[in-house]
Design goal:
mainly alpha
Length: about 170
């Protein structure tokens, strides 16, 4: 399956495409490209085509952080709680490709919203196929993973906010 076939398969929410990605260790580089491209296009779209470098930089950093956290959390919950079968590389690949609908975020306003919901649908299929779970266990994995992800983001926000606050107090 070519890289383009995989992207089209993800947009079509094709389970066989995610199976192909899951079982191809060489697809990791492509998954990295998908996450990077989605982040760059999202950064451009969020700045309404002005392509502010800071918006693109923040978008890329948060996309990669989100990708890794989403993959690790769903892997941990799916394998430990619901007896899914996967390794972390498989989860990184399928979830990385699930970011493809974020390409639509380059379209100001609606593109990001449409891409977000399409990415959720692609993420559901990616997690289901990657962990070899049924729909119920997949939904529970995603729900538990979302709670864990948001809790982690709150902790990171508190730590970063505290660090920024201390830096401000110290004149850094």
């Amino acid at each position: 399956m070519t890289f383009q076939d995989r992207i089209l398969g993800v947009f079509q929410l094709d389970a066989a495409t995610f199976e192909n990605i899951e079982h191809d260790p060489d697809a990791m580089q492509q998954a990295v490209i998908v996450v990077a491209a989605a982040a760059i296009l999202s950064g451009i779209g969020s700045s309404f085509g002005g392509a502010e470098l800071s918006a693109i930089f923040v978008s890329v950093i948060s996309a990669f952080f989100g990708w890794v956290v989403w993959s690790v959390v769903t892997y941990a919950i799916g394998t430990n709680v619901f007896n899914g079968t996967a390794d972390i590389g498989e989860m990184l690949r399928v979830i990385g490709f699930a970011f493809a609908p974020q390409f639509l975020a380059i379209i100001p306003c609606l593109g990001g919203l449409i891409g977000f919901f399409w990415t959720l649908a692609a993420g559901f299929i990616a997690i289901r196929q990657g962990l070899d779970l049924d729909n119920t266990k997949t939904a529970l994995t995603i729900g538990a993973g979302a709670l864990a992800y948001f809790a982690l983001m709150i902790v990171v926000g508190i730590v970063m906010g505290t660090a920024v606050g201390i830096g401000g107090l110290l004149g850094m």
